[in-house]
Amino acid sequence: MNTIEQAAKRLAELKRAGYDVPVPDVPGTAAAQPAPAAAAVPPAAPVAPAVVAPVPAPASAPAPVSAATLPTVRSAQVEMLPTAGRRSREVRLDLERLEREGYLVPSQARSQLAEQMRIIKRPLLANARGESAQQISRANLIQVVSAMPGEGKTFFAVNLAMSIAMEVDLSVLLVDADVLRPSVLARCGVEPSRGLMDVLKTPSLDLADVMLRTNVPKLTLLPAGTANSQSTELLASTAMERLLDELASRFPDRIIVFDAPPLIPTTESRVLASRVGQVVMVVEAGKTTHAQVTQAYAAVEQCPVVLSVLNRASGNSGEAYGYYYAS
Length: 327
Known about the structure:
Elements: H1 3-16, H2 35-39, H3 44-52, H4 70-84, E1 89-90, H5 95-100, H6 112-128, E2 141-146, H7 153-165, E3 171-176, H8 184-187, H9 196-201, H10 207-210, E4 212-213, E5 219-222, H11 231-235, H12 238-250, E6 254-259, H13 268-273, E7 278-284, H14 290-299, E8 305-315, E9 318-326
Helix pairs in contact: 6-7
């Protein structure tokens, strides 16, 4: 018992014995304080602030995020979201229209056209998987060309992409690289939009911003984009080289099919052919001359693999593709 408590006890005893002893105001003792004064103070008033007041964290605990640090955290999140959250826009291909116009669609998996495309794509896919004796750089980049316009290269490119999309363990990106006269989107019933030329022209533009997912599983489109008078230079640029590297290595289970301009009247296809792993030359039966075919082959001689397809070749069962290799 401390001194104050002893004094308070002694005063209480004297008071009970009848002595009129004045009680001094001693802080901290209940006996020293008159009852009315104690009752006048609401008990909850001093307690409430003590309950809700923040308690300082120990030195070892992580410091709470202050208002001064919040702008830095938010800025980092905003900067990361566009890359992490980018998702290509989805479009719907007019499959009924494509089927009416003779194109391969998923519902025709056992058609004659589907079988022809299976025969043609098999060596291309074997090369892309590295199953051939020759090791081919960027073998999953396949360029579809023709010597002259109107030989059916876009028709073939769309069919090839559709056929590859039916593979179990592969996906396909169909690039409209005919930047002078793009037609892939129009044939598929899709409105034109930004694409290849815009990515090459604007470094801040990401592929995911312009690629188009479709209602055909595992088939994605890359439009030609905004027309540019320097299309040849852009296709020959360092930006294009980096883009092709990204396409070739980023998704090992993806085949990239380029529908490129005709070889003889343009220069764009020649530039692209020197950078891809495989070329498919579409030749229209009975139309393309021997001299034109020879000139076209000379333009793609830097490409290690050239697969030739004879379009509109007449056979016992009607129109068909024929194919052969050329070196």
